[in-house]
Amino acid sequence: MAGCGRKEIVPFAAMAAVELAAVGVNTFYKAATLEGLSYFVFVAYSYVLGTLVLLPLPFIFPRRELRSFELSFFLKIVLLGLIGFTCSICGCKGIEYSSPTLASAVSNITPAFTFILAIIFRMENLDLRSSVTRIKIIGTLFSLSGALVAVIYKGPIIFSSSSSFPPQSLSLGLQYSSETSKRNRVLGGLLIASQCLLSSIWYILQTQVMKTYPDTKIVVPVYFLCASTIAVPVCLIAEPKLSAWTLKPKISLITVVLSGFFGSSFCTLLLTWGLHLKGPLYISIFRPFSIAIAAFVGVIFLGDDLFLGSVVGAIILLLGFYAVIWGKAQEEDVKDCASSISHGKIPLLQSHRVEDMENK
């Protein structure tokens, strides 16, 4: 029982840490954009620094036997790099147009996208006769609805940064205008939604890659190397001004360093490990953790105002989230019990209860 508890607690803590790191990097990035940091510069530096951090891993933790790389493996890694780079660009531009709070609210649509893609690629079962499957579908629809509400409906301010603590002199020395136009807000929300769709595709493809080559400390550095090879020339063409590539020792430099060490390398390493251990749907359902973190950090450090639309959308998304995670937990319980029965680890009388759960 202790082993089973540890088996669940460690992935849970790891994914919660990923969300915390992601929100922190997003908040710093939003602050850096107010000082003129280009998102192309940010993405390129983040990938390069992440590559430098991760490349030593295979040498620090060597394996006795290394499987040979196949062409299909490299092609999948290159595709992952392209998807990851595009995902980063959409996310950065979306946050620039909106805020980390809205980004966290809309990002909770990721479990819905992942669930749909997992069904398409037959990584999740779709049995409409099962009450668990119906609940997961309803949860997916709630997630989609909540994301639309968060993007389209702004509503009145329910918490203003003017009354927040600490005072403005402590809030990173920045002033963030809450008068973002509705047009930019919707465009930012659409870009973040595109990032969520690309993230779901990345989860599915990375899971398949890990089945082919189940070694995180090899797959992730190779992925970063491919992503950097794609990102650097594209970003140099998109941002030709050399002055934009000079990072001053202020918030921009801090943001790039944090992203390279935590937002890119740390998060991707844990996500890949989690995908291999638990699958894409489990990883994606942790996105709602970021809502409260982003709202708190955004109000305190960016002077961001909290709008009713973001709160209502987040609540609807949370309902959908818990419906999907409950259904996923029920399915895992049935699979574990069925596995125990096949190995003769539980009594025959208890096995009838498992059969009843499956019939439901």
Question: Short description, anyone?
Answer:
74% of the residues lie in helices and 1% in strands. It is mainly α and 360 residues long.
Tell me what the structure shows:
The structure is a single chain. The protein is mostly helical and 360 residues long. The chain has one domain (2-61, 68-321). The chain is built from 14 helices and two strands; from the N terminus they run αααααααβαααααβαα. It has helices at residues 2-33, 39-54, 57-60, 71-97, 100-106, 110-120, 131-152, 182-212, 216-238, 251-278, 280-284, 289-302, 308-342, 348-359; strands at residues 157-159, 306-307. Strands 1-2 form a two-stranded antiparallel sheet. α7 (131-152) runs antiparallel to α13 and α13 (308-342) packs across α14 (348-359).
Keywords:
360 residues; mainly alpha; 14 helices; 2 strands; disordered N terminus
Instruction: Tell how many strands the DSSP assignment holds.
Output: 2
The arrangement of helices and strands along the chain is HHHHHHHEHHHHHEHH
Which consecutive residue ranges, at least 5 long each, have pLDDT under 50? 1-5, 163-180, 348-355
Strands of the biggest beta sheet: in what spatial order? Answer: 1-2
Largest sheet: 2 strands, antiparallel
Distance between the termini: 26 Å
